[in-house]
Structures are given as C-alpha cells and as structure tokens.
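Example record used in the benchmark description.
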Amino acid sequence: MTAQYNKMLEPLDLGFTTIKNRVLMGSMHTGLEEAKGGFEKLAAFYADRARGGVGLIVTGGISPNVRGRLAPFASQLSNRLQVAKHRKVTEAVHAAGSKICMQILHAGRYGYHPFSVAPSAIQAPITPFKPKAMSVRQIKNTIRHYARAAKLAKAAGYDGVEIMGSEGYLINQFICSRTNKRTDEWGGSYENRIRFPKEIMKAVRAAVGDDFIIIYRLSMLDLVDEGSTLDEVITLGKDIEALGANIINTGIGWHEARVPTIVTSVPRGAFRWITARLKKELTVPIVATNRINTPEVAEEILQNDEADMVSMARPFLADPDFVVKAAAGKADRINTCIACNQACLDHVFKNKRATCLVNPLAAYETEIVMHPVQQQKKVAIVGAGPAGLSAACFAAERGHEVHLFDKGSDIGGQFNYAKQIPGKEEFHETIRYYRNRLTDAGVHVHLNSEQSVESLKAGGYDDVVIATGVEPRELDIEGADLPHVYGYLDVLRDHKPVGKRVAVIGAGGIGFDVSEYLTTVDSPTLDVQRWHKIWGIDQTYAERGALAAMPADHAKLDPNPRQVTLMQRKETKVGAGLGKTSGWVHRNTLRAKGVKMLAGVTYERIVPEGIQVSVDGKSQLIEADTIVVCAGQLPLRSLEAPLKAAGIRVHRIGGADVAAELDAKRAIRQGAELAAAL
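Model output (structure tokens):
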C-alpha cells in the first residue's frame, strides 16, 4: 500500500461485512446484459476490474419487471430461471477478490418502449413514448417486484443491491412534483411523494435480511425545474438511512437536465460539495461521484471528509487496474478516463455495446485477446498518433520488436491539437499514459524521423503499419489562396494570429473545437466555481433542483474575444453529427458565447472583406478578418503502394485508412485489433 492514497485504500467496515477499500465501481450499462452469451462476457469484464483492485462493483441497471425495462428487450430479474446467468458474474467477481451489488432500476417514463409507466402520464423529453399513469395496484406490485428482484439477487450470489433513486428514473419521478401530479396517497405533499422510495426500502430490507448490502442512490441535485429542495433531500436521506440502507450513493442531475454533469468539460470532482453537505446530516457511509478520474482527486475528497467512498464508473472502463496501479505507486501508468462519452454512453444510447475510446478491450475481454506471440516479428509503425500508439503498445506487449516512427518531435498526433481545446484538457493525460506505456513495453521510438520507402525497405521489417493520419482537405473556391484564409492546423498547430471576426467553414467536430478555442480566454473547466456560475448551478441551494437563473453577466464570466460565424453546407442542425450525449453541451456553450451558426450554406467566394455565401437562396457577405477552413480531411498513405510493390506486408489503420472525420475511437480500436492479429 502506498501512503499517498492510504485513505482511498483503507477498508470500510459495514459491521456484517468489510469492503477492502473505499473505491466503488459505479453502475454502467454495457449492452452485454442483453447480448447472446453476454453474461459470460460480463463475468470476464467485471472479474478484470475485481482483479484490478476495486472494492465494490455495482452492475448496470436491471429492471424488476417488464414495464420497468429501459428498452423492449432490456435485462430484468424477476424469476428464478434468470438467477443462473447472474451467478456466472458473481462467482467470477468473488474469485477475483471483490464484492458486487446489482442495481435495481425501473425506468419509469424513461423507458424506450410503449409499455412504460410513471406516477403521472407525462412524457419525458428524451423518449417518444408517453407513459401510462400507474394505478395504486401497479404501485404496490412494483414495490413487491423490487423486493423480489433483491431476493433473487441474493440467491444469485450478489453481496447487495443498489436501489436506483436518482437520475430521473421511476423513483425520482415519484419524488418530484415535476413528474408526480397525483392527488392520492402517492402524490401531493412531499411526505406522500417519498412514500414510494420508503416502501421500497422497507420491502427490500425485509426480503433480504440484515446481512446484505443495500445502497440507495439518492438524487442530491435534480438540476431540473420543480426538483427537490435541499431540506427535502436531507429528509429523504435520513428516512432511507433509518429504514436500513448501508450506503447512500450520490445521484447528480436528471438525464433531461440541461446542465452537463459528466462530459469532459465538467471540472474534476465538480459535485463533491453536495455529497459533503449531505455527509454532515447522515451517519451511514456516503459515496461521492461524477468526474472523479484520478486517485489524487479521490484521495483528496476522502481526506477532506467530503465522502466515505468514491464512485468511478468510466475510469474502470479506461483502466481496469486503476486501484492496483495506485496502490503500487504507479498512478502515472493509469489510463485516465477523458470523459469523452464517445464509446461508452454514446454507444449505450444507440443500443450498441459500451466500450472505451482509450481502452478498446473494455467489454471485449473475451474477444480481443492479446496472447503472447509464438514467433517474434520486427514491425515498423509509421505515425505516432492514436492509431500508431495503440498498435505499437499492444504489439510490443505481445512480444514483437516494434519500431515507432514519427516525423514530428512528439507523440500524440491529433491529440496534441485536441488537448488545447477548452474543456478537453484531459487529452494531456492520454499522451502522458502512452508516453509511459511505450517505455514500459520496450517500443523503439524514433521521433523527428520521416520515413521513406527506401528506409523502410532497408530496415528489414516483417510488417509495416501505415498510421500516418490525415491532411486537411483544401477548399476549392475562388479566393481560397488569400492570406487571411487558414486551415485548422494553422490555428491549432502553428498558432498563427487570428482576427477579431472569424468565419469557420465546416461545423463538424473540428469546426466546433476551433470555435471553442477561438472564443475562450480561460477554460472554465479549470475553475470549478466559475463553471458552476456559467451553467446556473446554485451551490447555496436556494432554489428547487439547485438551479439558478442563467447569469446575466455571462460575458464577464466567460468572455469571448471574437465574433465567430460557424457554417456548414448540410441543411441539418448545426452540430447534429456531434456525440449524442455531449453535442448539446458544445452547441449550448457556443450559443451562450454568441457564435452564429448557419446551415445550408453555399460558399461562393472569399474576398478580402470576408466570405460571400448564399443561404436560402440569398447571397450575403459574412465579414471576417480570418477564414478558418475545417472542411474535412484526406488520408495520408503515400508509402503504401510502393511498399506493397516491393513485397512488404503493409497494414493501414486510423486516419490513413478512413479520414471522413477524425475518429480516435476507431483509430485506437483498429490499432488494437491489428496488434492482436500480428
């Protein structure tokens, strides 16, 4: 044990059982819960995290009945025939030395199917299905179903259950007047509205006995209109504690809230303050959550007595060995979660399997397997961007002799541009991780080393991997060669001076990144108090849901030094192609800065005064001192054909393979899959 993280690594005694440290792997749906053979894969997934040292795991949400499912065929636990598959998971986790709780989650009006039910027939803004109002009989049956699911979970070998009472799901819907308009004993007064979670707590404790962990996920900040007050949250917390909860976990924000809570632009540990506030009122262990992604942040929260445990979900997708690395004094070797959501939550909301941009093995432990090599090869990888780094590390760790070349002076490729974008500072961590991993894996790194066909032929390589990335697509319109026309690399790589009025051509991910870069003086992500004010989060909790009015002095809080117009040819909403769970944050951020967004633009010509465009058939001049072109990329693969002609085995990955849009998720995954096959 390292003294640096002694509080994080300290056991937590619950009386009848002890959790070996203060780290909880938070609930996260993977999609394996519904896949064919999914529970065998889930067993491997969770066992990896258990071997990695996490004290307590909470599964993805499992419904107690059919109407509570998240989707038509989502997982539920309601009869003994379903117990056996869950036992595969619990046995694997216990054999690996950890404990595991099953989360019981009833979607309520968030159910993405026509059979959803809720306290009142009020449709959620994030699903097309309007729920039916629950009858009193349905309410009482649902309470029994929670207890039945908990009893079955105990039979399946789980160490406990987590009752999901936050994030806007069914229990939360009963608690808040926003979604509970009932006039019977289950609605109206706050006492009536919290009857549902209290009756569930009673029924679950009676069903499982005293020697079974019950975690209650308490919505401490609803962040929606007509949410709970602080006094109401404290009241419910005390009632739940009195009814036998062993641990109270923190819930932050409803899924429909217009306040970001987990994306990468949210400061680390941004919501620890509310957990600390509740901890003063309760006696059972309290868990802090959201954007805790390093052992330093976790340890600080625990040392400051702001929580008794810390919950991390996505950080265990990024690195299953998070805890053992921290314990061994190797925190600099942790593959840090960058909170991008691209391969985890964005996948889940598209009914795809969750994995991780920076760790493509997550949830694929039984399918992408890095076996030691039978015969060592000498491999050249040209390009030290995300794809090349991934391929180099995995291939060397398998036992190949790997030489990684890059014509630049540092590794990272496009990540070196991403890390400059306000709100994307976490990309620094990924570059740090790969730099250390290359050393540990024994990769021969050759920087400032541009390769040719001749040099690669002379190297005697068995395989050459082309990971040379992309080059920006040039704009083919009149005036594109004028001196005030820049490519995005001129701005992010070369840091050329940019004027006060800017027109950005292309509203994909790069266009949004460039716009944020040009309109930000100091990143709010690095100033948690200012970030709260910008997003209207009231830390005094004077208003329901802790929502304050959006600040009138936004320009002072987040000054914008430029007038930016962001344009795209497509007629769809600007930013429609951004991540499902993060795109709205980027759009709202730029909108608040006064960025003008235009869709359906025809670019006519660039002139010294700006750019002449046509929108809805009307020609107009957008005045600009600088034009920044973010109009796509082309693959760099000039070495491929002559190497193949020379009889050398050549592989192409990352942007050199497909350059339609910069896609680090695909690039890193391609690198891993190629390395596994070499």
